[in-house]
UniProtKB/TrEMBL annotation:
Species of the source: Adineta steineri
Coiled coil: none
Record localization: Membrane
Keywords: Membrane, Transmembrane, Transmembrane helix
The protein's name: G-protein coupled receptors family 1 profile domain-containing protein
G-protein coupled receptors family 1 profile domain sequence ranges: 48-162
Signal peptide from the UniProt entry: none
Length: 162
């Protein structure tokens, strides 16, 4: 997967002959550099995600201030799962150019990883879309939302009082 992207050689086809071009001419990033960048940036990312989750869940002035913060909490959980589980799955390959050699079923691991990747990124994309739609409706259709909220509250009060 990453070997093609970050390899030190590339194939260049010219007049039906294959020649190997040095990577320094094409400005590819060495795999070791990518590994250390991922390690250095993943650790603070996980810590920041945990701090943001703490502030959104534990502090009442942020948690109860606006009910639209709920979707932001879901986005934080999704991004935390990506940074804490997905990036560490890439690190062994970037470090060793292979996964655990004694792994019994590497194909099952790869299928799980692909499904996890696509699933988490798709869920985060849908949550971002819902957050944008919610913000749009709150800004441009504020009267409609407040009117419907008042109507729902009155129905709820009738049911509770009766």
């Amino acid at each position: 997967m990453f070997r093609d992207m970050f390899s030190n050689t590339t194939n260049d086809v010219d007049n039906n002959t294959s020649t190997i071009v040095d990577a320094s001419a094409s400005m590819l990033i060495p795999t070791r550099v990518v590994f250390y960048i991922f390690v250095l940036l993943d650790i603070p990312s996980v810590i920041c995600s945990l701090l943001l989750l703490y502030y959104f869940i534990r502090l009442p002035e942020v948690h109860h201030h606006n009910e639209s913060n709920q979707i932001i909490i879901y986005l934080l959980i999704g991004s935390f799962l990506v940074t804490s589980l997905d990036i560490p799955l890439m690190l062994p390959y970037l470090h060793n150019y292979s996964y655990i050699p004694s792994m019994a079923h590497p194909n099952i691991f790869c299928i799980f990883w692909i499904m996890y990747d696509y699933g988490m990124y798709s869920i985060n994309l849908w949550l971002m879309t819902l957050a944008c739609l919610e913000r749009y409706l709150r800004i441009f259709f504020k009267q409609l939302i407040t009117h419907n909220a008042k109507r729902r509250m009155m129905k709820f009060q009738k049911e509770v009082l009766s």
